[in-house]
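I had to read the description of the data format several times before I understood it. In essence, backbone conformation is discretised, so a fold becomes a row of integers matching the chain in length. I therefore recommend that a typical entry be quoted early in the introduction. For illustration, here is how one protein appears when written out as sequence plus structure tokens.

***
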Amino acid sequence: MNIERLKEIREDKDLNQKEVAKALGIKQQQYSEYEIGKRLIPINYLVKLALFYQTSIDYLIGLTDERKPYPKSILK
């Protein structure tokens, strides 16, 4: 996983780790471990991060360089 992207997108939004951790409902130390690759990010936090940053999980993990989120599905 491209963990550098987490720091890059956070800094692009002028946020600190504490602010992102608060949005996820976790402690700053836990988020820091995700950002440096010490800990794997659970899928539920990847979903929250993608929504928070208005991007896709694929972008966050480095599968695409396209920052735009995918269009919403009409299927339910």
About this structure: The mean pLDDT is 91. The chain has five helices and no strands. Helices lie at 4-12, 17-24, 28-35, 43-53, 57-60.
